[in-house]
Amino acid sequence: MASIGHVIVGMAAARFSREGRPTTWTPFGAGVLWSGLSLLPDADVFGFRLGVHYEDTWGHRGATHSLAFALGVALVALAACARSARSRLPEKTTVANRACGAERLVVAKAARLPALRTALITLVVVSSHSLLDTLTDGGLGCALLWPFSDERFFAPWTPLPVAPIGRAFLSSEGLRVAAVELIAFSPVLVYAVWPVLARLRWKRVT
User: How far apart are CA 178 and CA 11, in angstroms?
Assistant: First the structure.
């Protein structure tokens, strides 16, 4: 699958993670973060330059496309958010700044990333990459059950065209795949960008 669908999933996760919650993240920053997590399993393509073959355990759609890998990333997110929460705890305050310090603490607690919720969204976003790749009609399947099995899996239904890898994507076939994904993920894209569109519409009215 091309990167377009995965990026759109990341954009949707950015909106969902911020929905109705105070945060210090900008929409753009959140979009970049979650899209990066959505694309993370494809870091295995750098193995080609190191002599790793497609069908190897650490080859493309291998270990990094497993559910265990997604769980590992989610646990890292859980630990990072928990550590961030602890770092926001206030130190001893004087009588003069106690009220101000309490106010800052309330704001910090409201704006921080909820650890468990963020970890769960991370798990869904990273694992969605592999599950979506199983819907493609070419290449090898995904090693969903690694490290227990290196077997590659496809979904029973494979409606998405497989994307050419590397520079081959810059071709008419790559453009066709990108167009198909853009159409297929258009409802998710609308959900992701709707708040931005609504703000632009409101500015035009006012």
Answer: 17
In the structure, what pLDDT confidence band is assigned to residue 72 with cuts at 50, 70 and 90?
A: very high
Please tell me the distance from the alpha carbon of residue 176 to that of residue 71, in angstroms, as a whole number. 33
CB hemisphere CA count around 144 (13 angstroms): 13
Question: Domain locations in the chain?
Answer: 3-205
For residue 147, cis peptide bond before it (omega within 30 degrees of 0): yes
User: Which tokens sit at 162?
Assistant: 């497989």
Comparing C-alpha atoms, which of 146, 163, 162, 143 is closest to residue 55?
Answer: 143
Residue type, 69: F
The answer to whether residues 105 and 139 touch, using CB atoms and an 8 Å cutoff, is no
Query: Three-class SS of residue 153?
Result: strand
Chain-centre distance for alpha carbon 140: 22
Per-residue pLDDT band at 70 (split at 50, 70, 90): very high
Look at phi and psi of residue 53 and say left if phi exceeds 0, alpha if psi is from -120 to 50, else beta: beta
Q: Within 10 Å of residue 104's Cβ, how many Cβ atoms?
A: 14
CA distance 10 to 196: 16
Predicted TM-score (pTM) of this structure: 0.84
